[in-house]
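Team,

Forwarding the record for the chain on the shared tracking sheet. I've put the sequence and predicted structure together so nobody has to dig through attachments.
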Amino acid sequence: QVQLVESGGGSVQAGGSLRLSCAASGLTFGPYAMGWFRQAPRKEREFVAAIGANGGSTSYADSVKGRFTISRDKNTAYLQMNSLKPEDAAVYYCNVWDRPYTAAVNTHPPITSWGQGTEVTVSS
């Protein structure tokens, strides 16, 4: 059974930084892509960033390009968030896709249900 544990959220002022982590366990297949999504109150869950199986390919939502960086170390994905804006406030979720390429994150369902996520609050 795949388990995802997100951490690293918190409350920061605009312009600040946070680093989120996502530890995946119970994976019995590979290679796989990992990705981050976020959901703000009264809004749909939206794509933030994805990283391919080898860590060499990444993709980002236009709204976070140049400010966020996704990386991974084996079964753990990270999201370094710099220059945070109030509009970045949301609950951030990660997941795993049973395909190695980043495009799968937006074209295929993840392999497991979404977890509790980690909340990010940004004050202006």
